[in-house]
Amino acid sequence: MEFPRLETVALIEDDDDFRNALTERMEVEGLSVRAYRSAEAALTEIDADFPGVVVTDLRMPGLDGRQALNRLQALDPALPVILITGHGDVAEAVAAMHGGAYDFVAKPFAFERLSESLTRALEKRALVLDNRRLVALSSEAGLELPLLGDSPAIRSLRATIAQIADARMDVLIEGETGVGKEAVARALHNGGRRRLHPFVAVNCGALPDGLIESELFGHELGAFAGALRRRVGHVERAHGGSLFLDAVESMPTAAQVKMLRVLEEREIHPIGASEPRAVDIRVLASATGDLDQALVSGRLREELYYRLNVVRLRVPPLRERRDDIPLLFASLVARAPVGPDAEPPVITDAVRSRLLEHPWPGNIRELSHFAQRFALGLEGREDQAAGAARGLVDRIADFEKRILQDTLEALGGNVSEALAQLRIPRKTLYDKLKRHNLKPADFRRS
């Protein structure tokens, strides 16, 4: 049976009158109740994806509440089970709590006591299922992690990658540090016919002084003192596949000149070789920061820039794709090295608020480090405590601020367009901007 609502309660109670009365009261509270006379009947319809909470009497004929708890725990340890006990069964209920029960209420009880427990249990269940959904989406997508998400910016980038993955032209990939430029390069490589051949990544800023030419283009046996064997350079290793030049603007000028010739002629001349060798490569280069400034300063030669800039892709930073952050974070948490049997922690509302509010200047690299600390229990506890202490007014204010920030960011600080999109009077908008210390000028694009 399918349970479409997250406010679902499976009620197991053998007393018909008490079951009917409790069912009626829960439905008045807006809950969707599935009532069962026996645990056996309930267990035939509850599975690991049950989107709700189980409330069961402890003393019942046949399968009792403690046995039902054990069966449900085996099915899904994260499924909240609340026990209803008689006054004399409190000790057994406490023991069941140690065995995994979420809570217990002792008869006779005020419904408010059960309602409070249900509210907390349903919130916990919703978070668990949401966390699982995010992890499932990330694992099923089959994409490089930085390309996960449904924001317009990342969907547009994925569409462009799919369109040019099998093209022959070189590609220049730009973006801030940590956004996943190499992941974009790998997606371009894996999306085309070159995926059957090597993807060779070269960190241009880490090429060793004095050995740059040998590293890139290789050398022959005896080409110079110490050349005791033939060396195949990075460019030749990428033959048939893709050569990824990471941080190309940090490549020494002399190496840029030689690389320009490789791009133009598609051939290399290893040190000590009698003649050049042809190479079949597609060059994917990445640049960090302001390319115009790199050109002005001379760090990037104009000839190389124009030769690489056949197709130019920009990888958006996290602040431009905030809606994707929870999915990225859940995927990173699931991949964190915490042991094969460790259950990923639940992403609470407080942690989710932090994910959406933090500017993430280090982008996915910074998010990955936070996810690893969170998976190990080193982060997030203070967020949970702070979130519990903050009232509804504060949380609504935070949500309002995020909407204003996202709107101004998307519209480049254009107040007139923001007024039309938000459908509020001009004075109201400016009052809210002042309250949240937001300035439209800060969002205007240069």
What quaternary form is this? single chain
Structural class: alpha/beta
Strand content: 5-15%
Mean pLDDT: 84
What is the makeup of the main sheet?
5 strands, parallel
| Poorly predicted regions | 1-5, 384-389
User: Percent helix among the residues?
Assistant: 40-55%
Instruction: Please list the strands of the largest sheet in the order they lie side by side.
Output: 2-1-3-4-5
Terminal-residue CA separation: 56 Å
Radius of gyration: 30 Å
Shape: elongated
**E-strand count:** 12
Q: DSSP helix count?
A: 19
Explain this structure to me?
The protein is of the alpha/beta class. It contains 19 helices and twelve strands. The strands form three sheets. It has a five-stranded parallel β-sheet, with helices on both faces. Helix 5 crosses helix 13 (325-335), helix 13 crosses helix 15 (363-375) and helix 14 (349-357) crosses helix 16 (381-389).
Short description:
It contains 19 helices and twelve strands. The chain has 446 residues and is an alpha/beta fold.
Q: How do the strands and helices of this protein lay out in sequence?
A:
Blueprint: E1 8-12, H1 16-28, E2 32-36, H2 39-43, E3 52-57, H3 65-75, E4 81-85, H4 90-98, E5 103-106, H5 111-140, H6 152-164, E6 171-175, H7 181-190, E7 199-203, H8 212-217, H9 234-237, E8 242-246, H10 253-265, E9 267-268, E10 277-278, E11 282-288, H11 291-297, H12 302-308, E12 311-314, H13 325-335, H14 349-357, H15 363-375, H16 381-389, H17 392-410, H18 415-422, H19 426-435
Parallel strand pairs: 1-2, 1-3, 3-4, 4-5, 6-11, 6-12, 7-8, 8-11
Antiparallel strand pairs: 9-10
